[in-house]
Amino acid sequence: MTTTAGRRFPAFNFETYLQKNARQFVAPVVAFLIALIIWQLFSSVTKSLPGPIQVYQDAWDPLVICPLSVGNECFSLDGWRGGDVGLGWQTSASLIRVAIGYSLASIVGITIGVLVGASRLLYQAVDPMFQVLRTVPPLAWLPIALAIFKDSGPAGIFIIFVTAIWPIIYNTAVGVQQMPQDYKNVAKVLRLSGKEYFFSILLPSVVPYMFTGLRLGIGLAWLAIVAAEMLRGDTGIGFFIWNAYNSGALSEVILALFYIGIVGFLLDKLVGFVSTFISADK
Amino acid sequence: MQTLASPTTMPPAMQEPFLVIENVSKSYSTPNGSYVVLDGIDLTAKEGEFICVIGHSGCGKTTLLDTVSGFRTPTTGEVRVQGKRVTRPGPDRMVVFQNYALLPWKTAFENIYLAVHAVFPQKSKKEKTEIVKEHLAMVGLEEAANKKPGQLSGGMKQRVSIARALSIRPQVLILDEPFGALDAITKEELQEELLQIWRNHQVTVMMITHDIDEALFLSDRIVMMTNGPAAKIGEIMDIPFARPRNRAQIMEDPYYYTLRNHALDFLFSRYALH
Prior knowledge:
The structure holds 2 protein chains of 2 kinds.
Chain A: H1 2-8, H2 14-20, H3 22-46, H4 52-64, H5 87-118, H6 120-134, H7 141-149, H8 152-177, H9 181-190, H10 194-231, H11 237-246, H12 250-278
Helix pairs in contact in A: 4-12, 5-6, 5-8, 5-10, 5-11, 7-8, 8-10, 10-11, 10-12, 11-12
Chain B: E1 19-30, E2 33-45, E3 50-54, H1 61-69, E4 76-81, E5 84-85, E6 93-96, H2 108-119, H3 125-138, H4 154-167, E7 172-176, H5 184-201, E8 204-208, H6 212-218, E9 221-225, E10 233-238, H7 247-252, H8 254-270
Parallel strand pairs in B: 3-8, 3-9, 6-7, 7-8
Antiparallel strand pairs in B: 1-2, 1-4, 4-5, 9-10
């Protein structure tokens, strides 16, 4: 969306752009302020949660200004080891798990999706099973994952994998099934080789569908990692939340929620950005 | 030993016509019995002949051409090109699809290159590039080589599609209502280009159209089909106008209207849709 707007204004003038789109910027800010006020009122009435002002006072120093802290040091590169480290390090530990699990889910999911989409028989064979499996909540996989891997690290990655893979499989399969007959006819009449067919026709026509799946997948992966880390783990943002809750630091919990939300939002935008980049010609 | 001389093992006769459609029928089984689309079609074409097939919608024109291109196998009968039985689609019987069937993520150049590369893999990259350029020039689209189909008009897309079809030197060119979606002016331009290309390439053409004037202008013979189901060839009309043809000249010829009225009478009186 922003790219087309940018193209429409070749001589980009930030000031006029801001004037024209003022509402677009002001409205979210106002909404956010109202939410803060409601939150503040809620906490001063119920006394159950710290309000925004309290959170700011508790968490600004050192949690917000030292995201890459280790122990009492505000900045240290040793944070990847885990332990008493800042939120930045915790988030990156979660992100690494998501990256591994999600990459595996993408590779396996796209492969299975192409196969399932290409073969009617295979689709009919596995569809009921997949439909059941995909409704299993991520956390229900945790005991299974722990039983298989005996370790929380790979178990977390497995949960990411098994949560993110279903939308990737299904959307890729639908993309293959929805491929216009015309493209298949071109391939048939030219007698394209398997490789040529895959790379010149199948893959490009499936890419938009695939990215829908990848985008849903990254959202689910991020949901799952936080939950998995809360139950079992020694690093990661989920672990941080649980740890903070157990030591009664509710302000830290709330700050971590902001982190999670913002990172999840950015991940979604990242996959969206990559998809516009790859299928720009569609 | 004498059984060897059975009629089915006849040697490929040299004098067999270039394209033979022999007793082709096509039926589909439905819950209410079999549904016959085509019923015993016999047609032959000489090499380099231009044949138009006309008939009402649903009369099985596309099915007939699909048996030539190989996208459908006839229930009975067979199609032979140069004595060889058609069993599946192949680049020797290239199709110009009704909705162009260009790949939207490839440029005009790349769309044609894909075909050239698939059919002539042994040629060098330079040779293949030359072929693509030559055929883009043939349809007057050098400028649009690097544009994707989304940036091209309908007429330009169909030009790319025709260039792609001819770039691989097919023996038979099959066109399924190629100009149906185009405006009248573009349509006439493309008809003239198609005629010129056909004359230069000496390719055998089978083309479906709804447009009697188009068929009269382009073809050597017009095959008029009866209404489906169980469509047959109702009549074949010879179009004797000299080539190269000039649209204005042909339309001044009184015989043009004799033929035209005859075709109209066939379609709208004898085989009118009820």
